[in-house]
What does this fold into?
Amino acid sequence: MSPGRAVRRGRFPLSLREDPVAWERQRPTWREARPAVIAGALKRAQTRPSGNWYVVGSSLSVRADRPLARTVGGQEVVVWRDATGRLVGGPGACPHLGAPLRDSPVRCGTLVCHWHGLALSGTAFAGWEPLPVHDDGVLVWVRLDDVGGEPPLAAPVVPVRPALPEAVSAVYVGVGTCEPEDIVANRLDPWHGAWFHPYSFVDLTVVDTPAAGDTGTAGGPEGPGGAEDTEAAEDTDGFAVDVSFKLAGRLVVPVRAVFTAPEPRTVVMHITEGEGQGSVVETHATPLGADDRGRPRTAVVEAVVAASDRRGFTVARRMTPLLRPLVRAAAGRLWRDDLAYAERRWRLRSTGRFPG
It folds into this structure.
C-alpha cells in the first residue's frame, strides 16, 4: 500500500480547500489509468462466483399491493411479499395464457393475474414454479441458474455494510445500452472521477492499485476457500483513493475510499477513513436482455448505505424519507455521465475499436 496522504477525521466533517485548482489545471491521470490494470481487475472480478444471483431492485420497491418486476437475462421475473411479509418470486408470465404478471395486483399476499384471476401464493401451482429469492434489507435478489450457468449458491454475495438500523440507505436504478462488464469497468476506473465528475469530486489521488499481472481469485461464501478467501482477495485487489466529495464552493468532505469487486456484476466502494467511515456504495449491474435492435441492456442498481457515529447523524436517520430522493438524484447525476461512458465502451468493443 502506498502511504498516500492521511485522511484525518476532525471535529467537524467539512474542510475548506486551500488554493483550489481549476479543472483544466489538475494533474492528468491518463498515464496512471493503465488499461491493463483496469482490464486485469475486471478479468479477476469475472472469475469470482455469483451463484447465479441477480439484483432485481430495492427492498422498499416491493410494496404490499403490487409486485416488483424485471426482465433479467431475457427472462421475466416478479417478486412480491406473501401474507407474512416473506419475499417470494418466480417467472413473470402467467402459466395460463402468458399474461404479464408485472401488471397484476397483490391481494393479502397473493398475486392475482389480472387477465383471468389465477392466484399465486408463491408456491408451485399450475405449472408456475417459484425461484430462489433473497431480501438483504436493502436490495432484493433472484437466482436464475439457467441464465447464470454457474454452480448455485444458497445466498448472494452481499458486501459488508453498516448495521441498517444505524444507517441511511437509498437505491438508484438506471438503464443503459451496454453489458454488465462495461458498468463494472467504469467503476474499476477511479482515475476518471475528478475529471469526468468535477461537480462531485475534487483532489482525487489513487494511492494503491492491484498490479496488472495479479491473478488472485476468490471463492464465494460457499465456493472454494469460503468467505475468508473472498475478503483476502479483496484486500489485495482493490483501488484505494483519496478524494474529496464536493459540497459547495470550497467546502469538501475528504475521505479515503477503496473499490473492490466481490463478484462479476458488483463493485463496492468502502469508506475506510474520514467522515462516514464504514459507509458503502454498492454498484450492481443486472443484464436485462436485448432491445428491439438486438443491443444489450443493463440495469444499474446502486445502493448507498451511509453511517456515522456523530451525534447529528441521529437526526439524519430520522429524516431518511426526505434524504432518499436527494441521494437518488445525486446518484442519477453521476450515472447520467457514467452510463454514457459504459455505453461508449460497449460500442467500441462491439465494433472492435476498444483501445484496451
Observations:
- The chain has a mean pLDDT of 90.
